[in-house]
């Protein structure tokens, strides 16, 4: 049973911070160095200082990003920048963002997920995790006993009944907070209506949910469940038409200057006129093992041959139903043959990873253009229903296999374990 409950969130005090736009941030794991600096400059109270504090060469065991976060968190509470709500609530989040249809609006809610034995059965995980991010989030939790940002889960909602209930609830209430972040609009409602909360609670108790984003934070929460017992989660209905699942592209650093002809032993490689031409081909393809590759200047349509796919599927290192996914073919079969370490292998061997990630095709291509040994690999997305079905079987995909868009901004609510 998925057990959720309302809670008294710690939120920015609108008397002190009337414009939330300056203090919200994307989730910590999608903030690069440039974005971190921009958020630092936006406000001395931007939540980035809590979820992803800066590191300095002079940091020590006694003075570091975690100790600074602890001091800021305490000071912001003492100075009234953050204040605890008077009554337990679930928090509706309306997120409006650019899309192919001009704009789309997604409606979800934040509540506490109780971490009990059933949680491990009814919360499906679809991505493998790495030790370094878990160690980082553990240190942060030890420094600040709070869920500083929610993980992101989706839930089955046959007929869209919960989605309709949440929409009706938002329509009759005045929002308790509004903001704009990176061109996206956000509105928040604190819902204390016990009847609404009970209907949502009963539905979640009847289904299993899928982690969309936050696998590392979930595992850290589970590891500390005896101490804290709950985890703050942002939930979205799988029936919400504005729930978008994008691929995450790869930027690969090769052991020597990259040459697409090195792929000819296992792939057909054809030049493409440009990125748009290549992506049209990619999304029109249905066969496994199709990629768009950029060497920093030129674009290629890369198709793993049927013979090579069959060779991989004879004895894959992952279950066959997972092995047939593009991301598995790339990391399990193709990249190792051109001398590139998989993230898992690199981590287990203590090596630096040869692969970095971005959900933006343009950013991947730009990163590839900055170094001759780099290439960008653009992937197709995995449908949500397929991700859910695989996770329900207990199967895990490669790290960074999905990008649920848009990410819910951090800073809308905090779950402090110290009240």
Which characteristics define this entry?
419 residues, alpha+beta, 2 domains, nine-stranded mixed β-sheet, six-stranded antiparallel β-sheet, 15 helices, 21 strands, 25% strand, globular
Please give a structural write-up.
With 419 residues, the chain is an alpha+beta fold. The protein folds into two domains: 4-245 and 405-416, no CATH class; 248-380, no CATH class. The protein is 33% helix and 25% strand. The chain contains 15 helices and 21 strands. The chain has helices at 33-42, 48-51, 65-78, 117-122, 131-143, 161-172, 194-204, 215-223, 275-284, 306-314, 320-323, 326-337, 343-348, 361-369, 384-392, and strands at 4-5, 10-12, 82-84, 90-99, 102-114, 123-124, 146-147, 151-155, 177-181, 184-191, 209-213, 230-237, 244-246, 249-253, 267-272, 290-294, 299-304, 355-358, 374-378, 403-405, 415-416. The strands form five sheets. Strands 1, 4, 5, 6, 8, 9, 10, 11 and 12 form a nine-stranded mixed β-sheet that branches. Strands 15-17-16-19-14-18 form a six-stranded antiparallel β-sheet.
The share of residues in helices is: 25-40%
> Poorly predicted ranges (pLDDT <50, ≥5 residues)?
346-351
The 3D shape can be described as globular
Beta-strand share of residues: 25-35%
- Major beta-sheet overview: 9 strands, mixed
Radius of gyration: 22 Å
Helical/strand content category:
alpha+beta
- How many helix segments? 15
Layout of strands and helices, then pairs:
Elements: E1 4-5, E2 10-12, H1 33-42, H2 48-51, H3 65-78, E3 82-84, E4 90-99, E5 102-114, H4 117-122, E6 123-124, H5 131-143, E7 146-147, E8 151-155, H6 161-172, E9 177-181, E10 184-191, H7 194-204, E11 209-213, H8 215-223, E12 230-237, E13 244-246, E14 249-253, E15 267-272, H9 275-284, E16 290-294, E17 299-304, H10 306-314, H11 320-323, H12 326-337, H13 343-348, E18 355-358, H14 361-369, E19 374-378, H15 384-392, E20 403-405, E21 415-416
Parallel strand pairs: 6-11, 8-12
Antiparallel strand pairs: 1-5, 2-3, 4-5, 4-10, 5-12, 7-21, 8-11, 9-10, 13-20, 14-18, 14-19, 15-17, 16-17, 16-19
Helix pairs in contact: 5-8, 6-7
